[in-house]
Amino acid sequence: MIIAEINVIELGLAGLTMLGLGTAFAIVLLVASIKLKVEVDEKVERVHEALPNIDCGACGFAGCSSYAKAVVADPELLGACAPGGADTSEAIAAILNLQVSSGSAPMRPVVHCRGNSSDKTMYANYAGIPTCTAANAVPNVQACKFGCLSFGDCVSACKFDALHIVDGLATVDYEKCTGCTACAKACPRDLIEMVPFGQENMMIVACSSQENGKNTRSMCKVGCIACKMCTKQSDLFAMNGNNARTDYEKYAPSEQTETAINKCPTGVIVYRGKTAPAPRPAGQKAAAS
Length: 289
Known about the structure:
Layout lengths: L1 H34 L6 H9 L13 H10 L11 H12 L10 E5 L20 H5 L16 H5 L5 E4 L2 E4 L9 H5 L5 E5 L4 E5 L7 H7 L9 H5 L3 E4 L2 E4 L8 H9 L5 E5 L16
Antiparallel strand pairs: 1-4, 2-3, 5-8, 6-7
């Protein structure tokens, strides 16, 4: 009987000891949480909520959380969120009590290649790793070393389903595109360029070849042959080696630029955008002089 009473007392003491220790630990944790608490800027939280929260990295930061902190600290970064666009910039500006400067054209990607599957000369059937990066490391996969490889690295990189491979060519869906730059970064041949879309449809030279005209003709039906016909019609176009390029600082479509499109021997000058007209079919002759 005495032994039983001692066991009860011991159990009671053990319970009280555990209760005391638990209370002590709870107090220690409470004090630590107060002492170590990281104060969160309310503006940063509100900016983060205003962002798309897709962590695409187009702004130059690791993710939306990092950008939110950065733009609150440096308002000059306002407008860096391409996927969010003007609406997001305006929302952030309101949080930070800033004015949004208007007038800047949104940046959108254009693919400097027009060669569909039937337009390109292929040397061999590539059977390696099905990525553009892997195929680009293999010589002579296709005749034109400047053309779209069509394995879709840009498609995989796009989080908005705005890139597709259509008949062997990377094609942008401008209704879905946010200008996040992921596709441009993914292309191992740098065929995708971010350009200012000052208008819904933009005129581009859809080729990146630096071969001479004879070689380009042998490789692709719709490549730039460096004939300089476009540069003779309008100063909107300029030669970059053996390839013509649009000067977007001078961008202003006119009768002369339309003449350049119509007279281009290979039809490589095209419009790209939400409502862009279909380009001249490959092989169709240019308009008569």
